[in-house]
């Protein structure tokens, strides 16, 4: 069956795949609540009928503000199949961003998860006359429940009208407006059509080595196009989708579900790896040496390696060490696909060496999102690159070194911002804002961010992301920002990995009461100086970190230093820590 609109995926699913009870599932009262395709479609249709009864018409905007859960998917397809536009909003943004997005998109109805979101928006909703109502997935005082829409739908079933509404939706119609969290200014509303997103599904689904008998654990926010497109890929392939309860439960959720595939951002892979290493450090004697011999072997891994001696050693390491790593991740993983930010090559090497096939891709909201991705087949993958561009789009590098992309996945435009759209997409080519190069094997390599590259007062250009990514290989460093525009040298603010640092301090008999105290200890500062010195060796003299300051707290979405998809908000950090940064160059 041909899939031309996103909601066609559900009808195809019912026709193509064997019946099962876990098309999609999430935890309710500590137990997995599962839905078959029939339950899925019934919920979708009843919500559509309910929305039609409420007067929702083609082109109307409907918002969701909720962590991942099946109800999010039900509303998504229900909105799309009547020709309305889904505006998914992050549950973790600031009040000013909520106000801006809800006003700018002129949302008619909002679906929220529950009390936590309602507390954030209840005093701003009355200020917006275009909002006709709010519905909640959980029981929430003062808010109507989703069940009211479903029951209204059941009482107002009109199959003929629904089929007419579905038939009126065309592949080039806008399906969604996704507001990018952005590292600067107001969020931008990226308009994506059914065709934009489905062309991306078509471009990547055969890369996923999974089928209808496989399970996926999903934890990345559905309101971001990366995980949303992944979910559509899973529906295309018949993969069962299990939503992790939250970031704190993801390890136990993986143990329970034993997934075959995980789509992720590097941050989670870094955290998992740090925990594995922390366990290794607690080993003693032969076991300790064996563990770190295996890790060292893993760090030399390359895709498609053919050295017989290396492979023989890897087999031993696998049997004695790496098999335990795989068990910790459920024991079934066929694929880990990383995107959203640069993956440290060291992590790609070690995970693959450990028999956890890990590849890296690249894209952005404006491209629905994938532009390039490594494959699981020989000759189409390379560590340190994001792989070859998708077969159904074109990529070229501009004279300035910027990555440009052209294809059916490129956005319709920015909502209500035609001038910005013209600047961003010229002659069909999307200007990504990222710097890159295509190597002799056709692999795309990201070399920096056009606007983030800065010039020192000595006239030298520095790409902070490249330096930051390398420094984060240090077990002592959790987060880092490199600064130094118009200054004589590069400097950095560093957030230590406090879990690791505290273990180290204990070993060295360093006494402290809190984070603020530990970072002031001379022995700790000296250790970080040594660490910075070691990693500086990978860079030219003008790129090296000459001064740094340690911070006593982690950067989070809530405190405003990172975006909802875990990228640094450079301007926000520079503004917040202006005095500290100025002192580095004083």
How would you describe this protein?
This protein is α/β, with parallel strands linked by helices. Helix content is 38%, strand content 21%. The chain has 21 helices and 26 strands. The longest helix has 21 residues, at 308-328. 46% of the residues are buried.
Summarize the structure.
The chain is α/β, with parallel strands linked by helices and 586 residues long.
Span of the ends, CA to CA: 66 Å
Strand portion, in percent?
15-25%
What is the CATH architecture assignment of the domain at 8-169?
Answer: 3-Layer(aba) Sandwich
Structural class: alpha/beta
Any idea what the shape is? globular
Spatial order of strands in the largest sheet: 2-1-11-10-12-13-14-15
Mean pLDDT: 95
The stretches of 5 or more residues where confidence is low (pLDDT under 50) are none
Most strands sheet: 8 strands, mixed
Radius of gyration: 25 Å
Helix residue percentage: 25-40%
The top-level CATH class of the domain at 8-169 is Alpha Beta
Work out the number of β strands: 26
CATH topology of the domain at 8-169: Rossmann fold
CATH level 4 superfamily of the domain at 8-169: ANL, N-terminal domain
Count helical runs.
21
């Amino acid at each position: 069956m041909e899939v031309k609109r996103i909601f066609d995926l559900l009808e195809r699913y019912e026709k193509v795949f064997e019946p099962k009870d876990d098309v999609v599932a999430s935890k309710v009262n500590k137990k997995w609540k599962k839905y078959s395709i029939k339950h899925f479609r019934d919920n979708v249709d009843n919500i559509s009928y309910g929305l039609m009864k409420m007067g929702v018409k083609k082109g109307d905007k409907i918002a969701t503000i909720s962590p991942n859960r099946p109800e999010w998917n039900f509303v998504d397809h229900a909105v799309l199949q009547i020709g309305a536009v889904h505006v998914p909003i992050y549950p973790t943004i600031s009040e000013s961003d909520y106000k801006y997005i809800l006003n700018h998109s002129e949302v008619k109805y909002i679906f929220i998860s529950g009390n936590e979101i309602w507390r954030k928006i209840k005093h701003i909703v009355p200020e917006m006359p275009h909002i006709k109502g709010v519905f909640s997935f959980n029981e929430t005082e003062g808010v109507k429940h989703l069940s009211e829409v479903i029951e209204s739908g059941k009482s107002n079933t009109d199959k003929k009208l629904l089929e007419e509404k579905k038939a009126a939706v065309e592949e080039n119609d806008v399906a969604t407006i996704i507001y990018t969290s952005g590292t600067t200014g107001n969020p931008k509303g990226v308009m994506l059509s059914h065709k934009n997103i489905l062309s991306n599904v078509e471009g990547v689904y055969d890369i996923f080595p999974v089928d209808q008998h496989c399970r996926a654990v999903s934890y990345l926010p559905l309101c971001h196009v990366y995980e949303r497109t992944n979910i559509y890929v899973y529906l295309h392939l018949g993969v069962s989708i299990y939503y992790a309860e939250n970031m704190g439960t993801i390890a136990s959720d993986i143990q329970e579900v034993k997934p075959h595939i995980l789509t992720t951002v590097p941050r989670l892979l870094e955290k998992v790896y740090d925990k594995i290493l922390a366990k290794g450090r607690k080993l003693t004697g032969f076991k300790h040496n064996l563990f770190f011999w295996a890790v060292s072997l893993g760090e030399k891994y390359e895709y498609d390696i053919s050295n017989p001696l290396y492979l023989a050693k890897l087999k031993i390491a696998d049997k004695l060490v790496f098999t335990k790593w795989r068990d910790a991740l459920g024991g079934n993983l066929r694929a880990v696909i990383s995107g959203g930010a640069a993956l440290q090559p060291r992590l790609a090497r070690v995970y693959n060496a450990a028999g956890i096939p890990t590849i890296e891709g690249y894209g952005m909201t404006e491209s629905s999102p994938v532009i390039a991705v490594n494959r699981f087949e020989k000759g189409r993958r390379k560590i340190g690159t994001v792989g070859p561009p998708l077969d159904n789009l074109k990529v070229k590098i501009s004279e300035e070194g910027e990555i440009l992309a052209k294809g059916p996945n490129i956005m319709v435009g920015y909502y209500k911002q035609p001038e910005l759209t013209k600047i961003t997409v010229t002659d069909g080519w999307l200007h990504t804002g990222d710097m890159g190069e295509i190597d002799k094997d056709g692999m795309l390599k990201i070399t920096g961010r056009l606007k983030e590259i800065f010039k020192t007062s000595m006239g030298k250009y520095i790409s902070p992301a490249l330096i930051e990514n390398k420094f984060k290989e240090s077990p002592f460093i959790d987060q880092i920002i490199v600064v130094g525009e118009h200054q004589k040298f590069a400097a950095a603010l560093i957030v230590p990995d406090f879990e690791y640092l505290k273990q180290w301090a204990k070993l060295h008999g360093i006494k402290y009461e809190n984070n603020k105290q530990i970072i002031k200890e001379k022995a700790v500062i000296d250790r970080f100086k040594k660490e910075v010195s070691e990693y500086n060796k990978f860079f030219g003299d003008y790129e090296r970190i000459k001064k740094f300051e340690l911070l006593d707290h982690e950067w989070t979405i809530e405190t405003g230093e990172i975006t909802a998809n875990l990228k640094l908000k450079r301007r926000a950090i520079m503004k917040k820590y202006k005095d500290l940064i100025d002192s580095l160059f004083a």
